[in-house]
Amino acid sequence: MTAKQLNSILIANRGEIALRIVRACKELGITSVLAYSEADRSSLPVKLADRAVCIGPASASKSYQDPRAIISAALAFKVDAIHPGYGFLAENADFAEMCETEGVGFVGPASSIIRNMGDKIQAKKIARRAGVPTVPGSDGAIAQHAEAVAVANEVGYPLLIKASAGGGGRGMRVVESAETLERDLAEIMSEAETAFGDPAVYLERYLTDIRHIEIQVVSDGESTVHLGERDCTAQRRNQKLVEESPSPVLDEELRVSLAEAAVALCQEVGYRNAGTVEFVFDNLERRYYFIEMNTRIQVEHPVSEMVTGIDLIKLQLEIAAGNPLPIAQDDITIRGHAIECRINAEDPAQAFAPKPGRIESFRAPGGFGVRLDTHIETGYVIPPFYDSMVGKLIVWGNDRDEAIARALRALDEMHVEGVTTTAGFQRDILDSATFRSGDFNTAFVAEFLEGETA
Amino acid sequence: MTAKQLNSILIANRGEIALRIVRACKELGITSVLAYSEADRSSLPVKLADRAVCIGPASASKSYQDPRAIISAALAFKVDAIHPGYGFLAENADFAEMCETEGVGFVGPASSIIRNMGDKIQAKKIARRAGVPTVPGSDGAIAQHAEAVAVANEVGYPLLIKASAGGGGRGMRVVESAETLERDLAEIMSEAETAFGDPAVYLERYLTDIRHIEIQVVSDGESTVHLGERDCTAQRRNQKLVEESPSPVLDEELRVSLAEAAVALCQEVGYRNAGTVEFVFDNLERRYYFIEMNTRIQVEHPVSEMVTGIDLIKLQLEIAAGNPLPIAQDDITIRGHAIECRINAEDPAQAFAPKPGRIESFRAPGGFGVRLDTHIETGYVIPPFYDSMVGKLIVWGNDRDEAIARALRALDEMHVEGVTTTAGFQRDILDSATFRSGDFNTAFVAEFLEGETA
Amino acid sequence: MALNQPDIRELKSLVDWVNTTPDVRELSIKYGDVELFVSRNERTPASAPVAPAASTVPTGAAEQSPAPAAATAESATPASAPTHGVAPKPAAAAAEDEVTITAPMVGTFYSAPNPGAPAFVEVGDRVSADSVLCILEVMKLMNNVEAKVDGVVTEILVENNEAVEFGQPLMVIKRDS
Amino acid sequence: MALNQPDIRELKSLVDWVNTTPDVRELSIKYGDVELFVSRNERTPASAPVAPAASTVPTGAAEQSPAPAAATAESATPASAPTHGVAPKPAAAAAEDEVTITAPMVGTFYSAPNPGAPAFVEVGDRVSADSVLCILEVMKLMNNVEAKVDGVVTEILVENNEAVEFGQPLMVIKRDS
User: Fold this and answer.
1) Rounded (to 5) percent helix, strand, coil in chain C
2) How far apart are CA D172 and CA D149, in angstroms?
3) How big is the B-D interface in CB pairs under 8 Å?
4) Which site among B21, B336, C140, D56 is 20 to 30 Å from B368 CA-CA?
5) Rounded to a whole number, what is the distance in Å from the CA of B443 to chain A's nearest CA?
6) How many angstroms separate the CA atoms of B347 and B420, rounded?
7) Of A148, A130, A126, nearest to A138 (Cα)?
8) C103-114, pLDDT tens digit by residue?
9) What is the pLDDT of chain A when averaged over all its residues?
10) Is residue B70 within 8 Å of residue B47, measured between CB atoms?
11) pLDDT over 60 at C71, yes or no
């Protein structure tokens, strides 16, 4: 038992993460007050929360994303703190600041940290200050040709030139080697001058064969622990599909190095909350580079919970109550392998179009090593106002092979009628030789989909 | 991957354990052929097995308990082995022997081991030979008064005198101390002579303040590993209700000693299968005594799976395939705490009368650390022919307190409509100060029930 | 007004959702420059009438814009405030001439302008459309809730100082016929 | 016949089970010296007629006692064997005068007395009640399956040497009218 505990919190979210937080509250004896929109009135989290408060109409901008509605609910219903979950207001620095001003607790870091980490250039600067490698590139925009050439040769190849005033893919070029650099640079800069009236460019190493690896951290403002990495390389259009821990490509040295980098970053800013430090991992050079930090709980946090046994939501609530971290790094060991599959109400055959509708019948998979975090149940109507994720299947196995076998078994077992989901698609991904090999990069899912239609 | 694998097995059971075995087969790529009775035609295990074969009518004696039907199905459908689950034919030495004769594999030990361990006196002899402590008592029936007095003083007090020819509670007496021994002994022996025509008595230490603690073992015929203990002290009328691991009362020295005793017993007989060595633990003297060995998988096996991460059904199947144990004792570590609650379709308010019927609506609990092994689903009709257990809730937590909190949360979350279950009763047990304290004995549940009605 | 295919598909899915969800009675959506208002009859399970509506259709959502004037917690005069949604009383017994005043936002209900002052209205009071019925405090901003109809207050459903949800019934007014 | 309270309660729960389970059409129970036979009309969902029946009611279960005579796998002459259940063909199209011969036990179906020998019956063959239709091997015990009715074999539903489940339809016989 820890010294301090929140008496009650307002959960300013919906769906599976709202339910996840309700569950943690129940286990801790914290009163959960769930803020919900009219569209979620008959949802499972509303049924299971200790108390539920309607905060606005279906539209997220007038409910889950309305800082006034959320804070007003927190004040009127006298909770100790607001848990924002993920998405919506979870990384909104202004909202966090309003909480600070209004004297409402916020389960997250100080607004200034959210603001700094939300600014990609600022975050990169902090990372460098903490000695964390970032993707090699120019420190800022360069308007002089000669300076650009000098920096470019430092950054290395392939090199991405981005017009400072460009955007949406315009004014970008990849330079494969030093041979064509000067000509390419001159062309891009003069094009940018013509098109945007500004010749300045950013330079950055162009990485293609990459994986997405992130470190789960928890800090209390004084000290930081990490819960190992999650590998989120299987993505479709930058949306994570499958996450796993440990990563199938890291060796022990890299694993330690990545984790230490993430911890150093947290220590640099005096971070306070659970958080995720995201890296790209260059398969060829086997080097990692910081890309951003998420200052909230993430969708894929259960993967780390399954291999460490540590309940991250409970840790968030303990820290928000003002307690020091109840665990040290030595208390944390990684056991086995965990895989998460996000299940969306989407139709893979229709370009993953969202498929809201009524769940006529639902049966959860069960048994050893299977965890399902979902808010759906038989009779539930998926509203069309929010994102299409209807649940997360998380499996644990002694090793990656067992985890994959278990995930396939559980996906087969799960029974959803009335709504099309991506469960079958996830099954195909996991069952593919490429996924099984562990040897792929962020292009894997796109290539897999091409292969299927070819 | 291990060298040998079964291609297909016949699952000669029903309910949650049939589903449990189907799941393990799926993960191993073994074809599961489920033998079912007509009453189970639309059950979930039948739906999820690779193949299902009707073997007889509802009556267990003509289906699940009919060796001929089971073996005939195994032969006709050409499986490599039969998994008997628990109950029914799982510890039937004659059935195992028939399998041996017919050349059908049996997921279990040799019939001779089942037979020896099924004979309590024989099992006790083997235990003593292996150096495992048994409840102190006479080696057999004693007909001479003087000899009985001598043995009684060796056994110690309180002492139970049982007329050899008695039974059902007749011809039994507890002797509290040596003072009354000679008189009590004389009375009982003369009563027995009069009533049964035989004065012979058994003598045994009378233990009252006891816990039930068992060791999960797995042996391949050559070597044995253990997966720690399960504490099954919370029982109602000798039916286990709640099982947990680790035991809240063992210290490290006792824990090791118990486990070593269980391993020694297995090694003594060259045991081959998963198995359970059961002990009574005397709270007062803090000593343990062997009572029996179960030569099959047990209902409560998931408790050990949750703290070790080891899939016991898969190990059974590996051993049945002829592989040596793929793990050594050093590979096994206990993490955290697991608790299992058996959920029965019974009404605690009606003296736990079975309540078969239709499940109008069912929603499984979910989230971190929650495992549900059940064959029920919405629309399932619980047949009245078999036992009333409809599922097992198994929770894992970092410590016992977290596991209890999680179990309560999950019991609250579970939603069963149409049939009365013991979930609420289980909740009351777990939430009681006595259970939380960990300090109780086998009389706990009976006392709890008396307290409730008082 | 320019609706393309995906827009129409999304609108259709919204209407489908309303039709399959038992507890949605009214829905208003502003989608670009199109406003859609769907209202479902409470008793008859017939399909919902769907009418593309101009902004003249009084949707509750459109009226919930925050008050432009700022006010502090101490301000004695409540700021000019957003109006509230007027909806038929959800209770089965609600007569046709009764309107239920619901909370336009989650917040704290005050029955009087100041602590200790007499309540704005009591049961039996006659009110006109512009009568202030109560105040809703939303993050220290005091919002007047007006009657919007002429009639007599027949029920006050919440206590002074009570936290209220969005859409929670506050009072019932019997409208003049 | 002595039924006490718990017995009656248990019997009632059995009957309830039959009433709530959609796929049970017939149920027979022997309980002490009482036999209960419940049969449900396939088409009409009316409540099942419940009739306490004497042992003269031919229940399938009572007939499935193992054959007393032992037989080895090599035995050319099949042992005298248990009779089989005779049930109306479960298929919707089954005519009233057709009876489906089902497997009385799980085992292996043989259409002929020996490998290579001609089949006991072919489609179109006329059979009498004591005609042997096939053999079911149950743990090396060869069990004759007899027609039990006079008629003509209209369908043979399983292949020689096929594994069959308990209750699996084996043949259809058009009964003489």
Assistant:
1) 10, 35, 55
2) 11
3) 85
4) B21
5) 28
6) 6
7) A148
8) 999 999 999 999
9) 95
10) no
11) no
Could you write out the DSSP letters of every residue in B130-172? TT--B--B-SS-B--HHHHHHHHHHH-SSEEEEEEEEETTEEE
Residues 6+ apart with CB under 8 A from D113: D76, D77, D78, D120, D135
Q: Contact C16/C8 with Cβ under 8 angstroms?
A: no
Contacts of A298 (CB under 8 A, 6+ apart): A86, A214, A216, A276
- The pairs formed by A120-128 with CB atoms below 8 angstroms and a separation of 24 or more are A120/A292, A123/A290, A123/A292, A123/A293, A124/A290, A126/A265, A126/A268, A126/A269, A127/A265, A127/A290
Q: Which residues of D touch B (CB under 8 A)?
A: 9-10, 13-14, 16-17, 20-24, 27, 29, 60-61, 64, 66, 105-108, 137-140, 163-168
CB contact under 8 A, A72 and C106: yes
Distance set, CA A409 to CA A343, A370, B50, B82 (Å): 15, 10, 12, 21
CA atoms within 13 A on the CB side of C107: 23
Q: In one letter, which amino acid is A110?
A: A
Average pLDDT over residues A229-246: 96
* CA pair distance C40, D81, nearest whole angstrom: 69
pLDDT digits (tens, 9 = 90+) for D75-104: 333 333 333 444 444 444 557 899 999 999
Contact B48 A305 (CB under 8 A): no
Residue B164 is encoded by which pair of tokens? 């050899």
DSSP code of C79?
A: B
- Chain B hits for D64, CB-CB cut-off 8 Å, are 56-57, 62
Q: Are C174 and C98 in contact (CB under 8 A)?
A: yes
Residue whose entry in the numeric block shows the structure tokens 């989407």 = A346
Active-site residue identified among A236, A296, A342, A406: A296
Verify whether the Cβ–Cβ distance A27 to B409 is below 8 Å: yes
Task: Label residue A20 exposed, middle or buried (CB < 10 Å: 0-12, 13-18, 19+).
Answer: buried
Q: Is residue C75 within 8 Å of C143, Cβ to Cβ?
A: no
Give the separation between CA A383 and CA A40, rounded to whole angstroms: 8
Query: Residue B405: which of B394, B413, B397 has the closest Cα?
Result: B397
Pair of tokens at residue C2: 């320019």
Across the interface, which of A59, A354, A358 has its CB nearest the CB of C61? A59
Per the CB < 8 A criterion, the answer to whether B55 and B37 are in contact is: yes
Please give the structure tokens belonging to residue A400: 């990656």
Of the candidates B27, B336, B408, the beta carbon closest to that of A402 is on: B27
Say if residues B75 and D108 touch (Cβ distance below 8 Å). yes
Name every residue whose Cβ is closer than 8 Å to that of residue A24 and which is 6 or more positions away in sequence: A30, A311, A313, A314, A317
Q: Rounded CA gap, A376 and A361, in Å?
A: 10
Residue D22: pLDDT band by 50, 70, 90 thresholds?
low
Model ipTM? 0.81
- Taking each helix axis from N to C end, the angle separating B423-431 and B444-453, rounded to the nearest 10 degrees, works out to 100
Q: Is C60 helix (H, G, I), strand (E, B) or coil?
A: coil
pLDDT digits 0-9 by tens, C41-52: 544 443 433 433
What is the Cβ-side half-sphere exposure of residue B274, based on CA atoms within 13 angstroms? 28
Looking at residue C52, its pLDDT comes to: 38
Distance CA D166, CA D89 (A): 15
Distances (CA, A) of B238 to B159, B229, B423, C155: 21, 19, 19, 60
Please determine, for residue D62, whether its predicted confidence score (pLDDT) is greater than 50.
no
Please tell me the predicted confidence (pLDDT) of residue A235: 96
